[in-house]
Fold this sequence. Notes:
Strand content: 5-15%
Distance between the termini: 65 Å
Number of helices: 5
Largest sheet: 4 strands, antiparallel
Structural class: alpha+beta
Helix content: 40-55%
Radius of gyration: 20 Å
Amino acid sequence: KLLKATEEQGTSHIVSWLPDGNSFKVFDTKTFTEKVMPSYFSQTRYNSFRRQCYIYGFRLRRDGAFYHPKFKKDDLKGSLSLRRNQEGDRRRKNHVEQKHFVQEKQLSMHDETSCSI
């Protein structure tokens, strides 16, 4: 939807399909974040957009383009089959839980060593 709209609105200099039709690229992250993202996404930071792409299985190519084997310019059916990678969500959740556990442990160690005079 977004990539089709950029072609129709003449904003393909910001984000568009690459000529191969197998990947897309954000050419101007600042303008993409400020002008395009608010119309299509709830997140307002480019890093959040990238993280969502990764969760859906997209990979970042060396040239900075996003690629997914099921996401093709002329294959709407394939793009509709994309699903969130639950494993990626779990890894992130586990990382947050582990970080929280370490912080709690550090706080409890601080309490044990602090002097209460």
